[in-house]
Task: structure prediction
Amino acid sequence: ELKVEQNPLFLSMQEGKNYTIYCNYSTTSDRLYWYRQDPGKSLESLFVLLSNGAVKQEGRLMASLDTKARLSTLHITAAVHDLSATYFCAVLTTSGTYKYIFGTGTRLKVLA
Amino acid sequence: EPEVTQTPSHQVTQMGQEVILRCVPISNHLYFYWYRQILGQKVEFLVSFYNNEISEKSEIFDDQFSVERPDGSNFTLKIRSTKLEDSAMYFCASEKDRNTEAFFGQGTRLTVV
Result:
């Protein structure tokens, strides 16, 4: 079955710094999502990546997808405290099944 | 903007009791899902539903769980006899078709005591 792994699991960073969260998945997929979750809250959709080489940016966050490497990255530029949250990638699996498999999540804490 | 609505937002129940979690998907969506997230853990797939029947279910979705779409608008998840380990946030999601994004509801936090 499709496995989705994120690293790091926890990330504590200073404001103003850059960092990248990685999402690896084990089988072919056509679609990958990034979600943000604040404590006790729902999943906020950040990006949908549909094809190899796709890159999307919103504010200080930029997501990319390499389907050949089965890797997506979420890059944070000049982090601010408001970005503190847990970030999940979710991969759509369509091989004999159709569902979204979530990664383990990366808990980000941005220190002022 | 259309959204997936879940009720209640928080439910506390005694172990062994039945609970029904309710979801109103986006109106023209055809594919429906339930996911759950135990506190501090990742989001896990429970079940998918299309054309009034279950498309797929996970190992978590045992005989204690059931889903139905009773009236063409609501989509419900029933847990017949709750256990302590059923305590989690339950998310409903809906999708217009296989080529579009799934939208998640705000979740129902279930606490079994």
About this structure: Chain A touches chain B at residues 33, 35, 40-43, 45, 48, 88, 90, 94, 97-105 (CB under 8 Å).
